[in-house]
Amino acid sequence: MKKSSALDRFQDNPFEATPTRIAPFLLARPKFLTLTAIRKYGTLSRTQIAETIGYSPSKITSVVNDLLDAGILEEKGEGPATGARRATELGFNPDFAYIVAVRIGFSKLEIALVDFTEHIRVRQMLPMPAPSDPDTVLNEICNVVRQRIDKLNIPISDVLAFGITVPGAVDMQTGTLFDSPLMPSWGGHQIDSLIRESFPYAIVLVENEANAMAYGELRNGANRDLQSLIYANVGASISSGIILNGRIYRGTNGRAGDIGQIH
User: DSSP letters along 16-40, please?
Assistant: First the structure.
């Protein structure tokens, strides 16, 4: 059961109290490797974690206990029978944090609320608000998410990440879009600043939609064992996401993969 804290109570002004956790987190290497193994392979026992990442069982016991106390992991029950005593398996606590995934398209918005086990709790599709300037669109997104988490009794402090995809190229150094006829008036707009006014505990990531789709295939798709791939995205515009050696290839100016438009 998740431990309650002062942050579990809704605050009109979230800056009135000092938050105990703001993304991104800095984890010691053993904790990071433990969580990475569970993300990649699913629920694991303490022994399986130790074998996977190369630490001693006693070290992993200490690491797992810390992650359980922090509410990041939880015990999921006993694993399959192997002829010996069944081991307790560990997995992510779904209520530890929530992630908002947003796709900004040409004519519609897609918004999803995802728990910490990557289970979609809410998915909503909306027409693009008019006018479709950055402030109007981003305020609409924040309002929808606030309404949904209020209905689910999810405190704002538990929304720890916003992932936003756009149909244009993104300057990854600033997190802003390049000037583009695909999204007029969005060039150079500080998307993360406006989102964090409503969700101050969350890290905000803005990515080109083709790159995000390619990375999704790398992480969870049929080709997850590959380290290099190209994902073609054909819609109102034509673009591709390029993965080389397990990382998104962006080119010299961040526009690698752009192909053209359909008029």
Answer: GS--S--SSP---HHHHHHHHHHHH
The token pair at 45 is 């026992």
Give the whole-angstrom CA distance, residue 222 versus residue 92: 23
Cβ-based neighbour number of residue 84 at 10 Å: 6
- What are the tens digits of pLDDT across the range 170-224? 988 888 998 887 788 899 998 999 999 999 999 999 999 999 999 999 888 887 7
Q: What is the pLDDT of residue 8?
A: 36
Pairing of strands 237-244, 229-234: antiparallel
Residues 6 or more apart whose Cβ sits within 8 Å of residue 74: 68, 90, 91, 92, 93
| Residues in CB range of 176: below 8 A, 6 or more apart | 170, 187, 188, 189, 190, 191, 206
Rounded distance, CA 181 to CA 106, Å? Answer: 11
DSSP 49: H
Nearest to 237 by CA among 166, 176, 175: 166
- 3-state class of 207 per DSSP? strand
Question: Helix, strand or coil for residue 55?
Answer: coil
At 89, phi and psi to the nearest 5?
-95, 150
SS3 22: coil
Residue 172, token pair as written in the block: 């990854």
- pTM for the model stands at 0.83
Alpha-carbon dihedral sign for residues 58, 61, 66, 69: negative
